Amino acid sequence: MQVAIPHQLGREEVRRRLASSTHQIADAIPGGMADVETEWVGEDSLSLAITAMGQVMQGRIDIRDTEVLFDIDLPPALGFIKPIVEGTIRQAGQKLLAPPSA
User: Fold this and answer.
1) CATH no. for residue 82?
2) Which terminus of the chain faces fewer neighbouring Cβ atoms within 10 Å, N or C?
3) Within the chain, how many helices (H) and strands (E) appear?
């Protein structure tokens, strides 16, 4: 499952925002019962290992010039929550990448 969130921040600002909020990723997962491990695997890529509902999901966040691409591998057993996960990623991503207030 891929969710692209557009931005106009520049890669450096997106990296800064992601780095300061990785501890909040688990809070954004529906049900509040997830364990999330993150690791930067390059300047513009963050690897995710998410354990929820007895399932392990692998994911990646890639920072691009005009968008951030969230790519999560949902196991078939969790396919029914895809719309919820997509919506949550979109909402949290847009909040994270919102332009600074003037």
Assistant:
1) 3.30.310
2) C
3) 2, 5
